[in-house]
Amino acid sequence: MTVHFQEVVPVDTYSVQCKGVLHEVDHKVLAMLYQPLVGAFAHSLYMTLWCEANMDQQTKKHQHLMNVTQFSLKDILSGRKKLEAIGLLKTFKKVGETSREYIYELQPPLSPNAFFTDGFLSIYLFNRLGKAKFNEVRESFYITQFDVSDYKDVTASFNEVFTSLHPSEMSSKSYAEITENVLPEDAALHEKGVHGKVVLGEETFDFESMVNQISTFIVPKEVLTPKLKEAIYKLAYIYQLQPTDMSKQIQNVYYSAGEISVENLRREIQKWYRFEHEERLPVLALKTQPVPLKALQGMEPKSKEEELIKYFEEVSPYQLLEDYSGTTPSEVDLKLVAYCMLDQNLTPGVTNVLLDYVLSENDMKLAKGLIERIASHWARKKAQTVPEAMELARDEKRKYKDWQEKKTKSGSYRANKKPNVTVPDWLKQETGSNIKTEESSSTEDENRKWLESLLNSSK
């Protein structure tokens, strides 16, 4: 896992440039549509960089950015990554002998129409805001269109207002002076309507595998244009489609329509998804830990704890709940998972640790209040990896144990029967000086058996 100071340090310099200009409606789009997805700090970082770009073009150190925002470099890097991922920022880096130089190129946001018809960001906004708030926000961007069918178009034409130029004024020399490139090499004119776009890495979907499963007798390969390829990556990511499923949808569309476009492919996949998932939007519970945040990526576990880390990193929260119960997770439990991942922005791996901890400590019940309290605490701690979450879970257990002991000593604690739930090995506080009794040895054996059965059931 790459730590922030390996990527940027306070003395590294940066310059900011803009790809276009911000209009009044863009500010509303950033605040109402992008901010719920990237968070308040990333939105603030974007506006800070935009102000700096319009003030001057001087090169600054990242220490300056830390002073202005009053945030740590780790938080600034996290906010920067969110802006890059959502299509609002491009970052360029040059490594020198003693430091690194960055250029931050700000991208204007999508227009309201492009955002809500994108079929990608709008789904994530829907999941973040909920149906009622999503519709309210979308309606705030509506523009009333007047019915002009009973009116006559009386708009003046150019030639009705302006006189034509004399032939002497249209010399070839004048035309050449107008059309030649008079801009310096390091400058460009502002463009209106240029915006950034979300780009998904090719590792998110095996495109070649999908192509190999498409019959060339049904769909000619030239149909898969670069624009359609980009849409396929996005649709596969949103709807969690495997190459086999995507190839079937493409062949169905082309066979029925004789052509294929981004829009008719999206409609076909939406129809298929509704049939498969009973009108539900894609659930985040099916996502797994991102590769950059996997502590054991490409490594073999060397201990029982590492085996559990690997398990939490490889399965989705949905699969973890399914492993625990042996049945399909309930809608109530999936809503708690969505709260952790959407409202508190926890990663799938961290969510897995939280679910495992609460189930182990709470008689196999996912208590809403307990989930929300721990999730908000871990979010404030900025836990992103499984080991970080496991350490926080150990702290939670220690604090609960201390609280129980204090209540017992004060005499105000009424003993209740403790649920017969085995606590995972990784939750136990490691102590080197404890004397192992026959009873503790027996408990340890039971814990090992529990962990082995859990790992075996997840394979």
TrEMBL record:
InterPro entries reported for this sequence: DnaB/C_C, WHD_DnaB
Domain DnaB/C C-terminal: 318-391
Location of region: Disordered: 398-459
Residue spans of biased composition, Basic and acidic residues class: 398-408
Domain spans labelled Replicative helicase loading/DNA remodeling protein DnaB N-terminal winged helix: 10-270
Domain of life: Bacteria
Family per similarity comment: Belongs to the DnaB/DnaD family.
Name of the featured protein: DnaD domain protein
Source species taxonomy: Bacteria, Bacillati, Bacillota, Bacilli, Bacillales
